[in-house]
Amino acid sequence: MDNLKYAADVISLWILPVMVVFILLFGAVKRVAIYEAFVEGARSGFSVGVKIIPYLVAILVAIGMFRASGAIDLIERAIGSVFEYLKIPVDMLPLMIVRPLSGSGALGIMSEIVHEHGGNSYAAKMAAVMLGSSETTFYVLSVYFGAVGITKFRHALHVGIISDIIGITAAICVSRFMF
Amino acid sequence: MIGYIWLFLIVVSIIVSIFTGNISKVTNAMLDNASFAVKLSISLIGVMAFWLGLVKIAEKSGLVRLISKIFLPVSRCLFPEIPKDNPAIGHIAMNFSANALGVTNAATPIGIKAMQELQKINDKKDTASNSMCMFLGMNTSGFQLIPASAIAVLVAAGNTNPTEIIFPTLVATCISFGSAIVVTKIFEKFGRKNG
Prior knowledge:
The complex is a heterodimer of chains A (179) and B (195). Chain A is mainly alpha-helical. Helix content of chain A is 82%, strand content 0%.
């Protein structure tokens, strides 16, 4: 396990610089005018950033309002007993609801869980697995579709939500089995 | 569909806050998040520009095409609508690898590049194509080899063995990733072509 941790640390430390150097050297070997190509590509960064603004405003406003309204507490009170019955820590519920909506929000909730139950607790580990096996679906779809101006998402939205539900369920099952 | 969810979130927030008395919080969140969204978009520009610059080099040097070729057998079944020599496959593969390794700030610009390539071969410019749905289905299932941020939070809270979550996360993430692909294919077969 120590070796695995070491490998994970090394990879996360070196992956970025290695990617950058590899792309640059590959370009130089192939005799691409790398500086000119870089500037040409980087120029479009601004327009992409500006283009996603309206899409992000729309989705982040709605998500922010929903979280501030206390609706998540209501859901928690309504179906919390089901969680107790299934022996899933009730604190998982807000994490499950917020996860597809907001990445920083989910990380914040996970930090609260870890803080309250301790780093080695069952709840903390389950929360960590949950965080790693789902995505901030609404944010990702807004940014990626927004960047090319698509407003009709078709089944991308359904798939995103369904796979979050499956990912979260899988996280609960796997955690119960392994921890 | 996204319109309905959007409407639902906003209307429910306001109705709920009648009962919880949180209406001032909701109003503040509305205004705060509107300006936060702009700040977030602007703050993405630097990293976006940096990676789009590197991606342009990778394109011109033939690296993207090389990666496309390597992934051709896989992409044939996942993205049958992308022509054989299209650079989109290379971008998709690079986005996927960056996400899997937890390098989110590189993944997003490369993913947007992939979307731009897919948009070039899309017939209806306001509607997602099958390939886009598959790409984002894979993306939103959140496949990760190294759950870096979760590990960081655990370590900060004094977890003595944070790497024990790597294997369980891998199992869970593979399940959600695999099912995302299957579900996308099912929608592709039976779903609506519009909206």
